[in-house]
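Quick log. Single chain, no ligands specified.
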Amino acid sequence: MPHLGNTVRRPASAERVVIVSASVGAGHDGAAAELERRLVAAGLTVDRLDLLDVLPARLGRLVRDGYHRMLVRAPWAYQRIYSSTERAGGGGRVAQALLRSAEERLLRALPADTGAVVSTYPGASRVLGNLRLDGRLAVPVLTYLTDFSVHPLWVADGVDVHLALHAVPAAQARAAGARDVRVCGPVAASA
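-> predicted structure:
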């Protein structure tokens, strides 16, 4: 990974887009793959990163394995966590600390000529939004809301644009505090 110092800046020509997803749930990676296909077809250079791969001390593997184990063995636990974070308006202290630990590592993983970053995972949106707010990331950050129902974790301060697949999740994102929300339609491979 190239070391970029403290800030990634917009190059003269923004032809490289980095998509950040997470390998938990096929919807996040599926949207990332289709978005990559469309951007490459439009002539852009695209890199894809998995947020879990930039977590320190192999924590990403623990998160990935724990998530899959929970869905298979204790789906009620997933629902309980989802509901509690929805009521609280976001993740708890442990989740926030975990995401903060990824900030510098994700920043270093971005190529120097990155022109924009698109997130298809709420945790990645939180990390990227914090980097924008702190002034360490100077390129636009967009979040593609893969879900039809927008959990508060999806709306991250510092994200420039939230992209929604339909007017319903767009309205939910606005209600959760997103400032610039645009309906762009689904990002799914055509049949």
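Confidence is low (pLDDT under 50) at residues 1-12.
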